Amino acid sequence: MADSTRVLEQAEALLRRVSPEGRRMRQRARQRRWTAFWRRVKLAIAAILAAALAAGIFGTFVAPLGIGGVFLTLIVMAILAFAILMWPAGAEPTPEKLVQADIKALPLQTEQWLERQRPALPAPAQRLADGIGVRLEALAPQLATLDPAQPAAVEIRKLLGEELPELVSGYQRVPPSLRRDERNGKSPDRQLVEGLEVVDSELARMTEQLASGDLHRLATQGRFLELKYRGEGED
User: Fold this and answer.
1) What global pTM score does this model have?
2) At the top level of its lineage, which domain of life is listed (predicted)?
């Protein structure tokens, strides 16, 4: 029984690795890491150039640097570069921060938080988390122009900032040895999967509603322009 369970888990993990959603989420995570790395490299180069410029100005207008000054400048450059490259990354998103996040940044922060929770989830839930991440990617541009006071924004904030984190955190609070034990006909693993399915369907509904609203406004604006300028042309 233990061997068959292990084989099933390995098959599920392989399925996730080859799924389009899983590949997309890993690609986005790599892109974020590389973007952050090159940002640090650029900052380090800017700091080195600034230190060299400062040393050059000092040596030109104040006093010659000499060998000791040049050596000290190189040490300062190395320290600046090392400090920037090794400086700890920004604070990681947490459920507490998701509740307070700006609506425009909420999809990305939720995606990053969910990505870190994924290893602790069962394989079916991991696949659903991948799909939710893809939906969050599609939702982000729609929220960029959404008024935070609108009912849609409040609904999305509640789903992403409260209900989803509580679902995953509640599952993680269950001891691993009890997560497959059924209580009232459902195990914690199953409850988590069903909860993520609800979140996924809700995100699909919200995205469709927002897109329909955008299309409606676009059609209205296009009709207005058509009537206005065609009417003027006919006059």
Assistant:
1) 0.65
2) Bacteria
Task: Please check whether residues 213 and 143 belong to one and the same domain.
Answer: yes
**Is the domain of 64 the same as that of 150?**
no
What number is the average pLDDT over the span 80-86?
87
- Please spell the DSSP secondary structure of 144-185, one letter per residue: TT--TTSHHHHHHHHIIIIIHHHHHHHHHTS-GGGTTS-BTT
Domain count, the chain: 2
Buried b (16+ CB within 10 A) or exposed e, 94-130: eeeebeebebeebbbbbbbbbbebbeebbbbbbbbbb
Residue 7: predicted pLDDT: 47
C-alpha 101: how far from chain center: 12
Same domain, 20 and 124: no
Could you read off the pLDDT of 158-195 as tens digits, one per residue?
999 999 999 999 999 999 999 998 887 889 999 999 99
Q: End of a domain among 69, 90, 111?
A: 90
* Last residue in a domain, options 90, 110, 142: 90
Percent of the chain with pLDDT over 90: 30
DSSP 36-59: HHHHHHHHHHHHHHHHHHHHHHHH
